[in-house]
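User: Show me a protein chain along with its predicted structure.
Assistant: Here is one chain, sequence first, then structure tokens.
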Amino acid sequence: MSYLIRPYEAADRDGVNRVALAAFGQYQHEYEDWPAFSEGIGRMADLAVQADLLVAELDGQVVGAIVHVGPGKPRSAIFPDDWSVIRMLVVDPAHRGLGIGGDLVAACLRCAIRDDAPAIGLHTSPIMTSALRLYTSLGFTRNRDLDPIRGVPYGRYVLPASELQAALDRLAR
């Protein structure tokens, strides 16, 4: 089963939003006011306006997506302006375990290198065990607690530029 990681195209909109909702669906009982939270999740494709939205395509279908926010682009105040930021790593539950998540993260790491960012950051929650395991295996470290999002705890994680190539090497194994 071979998939392709590529830049988002307008025709991907519904597929990206569908995968985002499917990926976050397993957490619906964790978040307060899931209907309001899922409404935002279901608009993931809107992030393509001001960031790099990358998709994983398999047999013509979107099966994963991730957002890279480059230095100087609009972002949450929890991240310095000169960092690259990873947002919304999502993989269709039916296609997990194929390496799609790791390849999407690798694409963001390459974007951070391209943009000469001093670091790449992200925020995630302990409930997202697979994603958190991936990030920490690549060298991301938790450097700040964040306010809960709709009742779910979050933390900020960072990987300095000096560690980006090592993280890519780990993903290539």
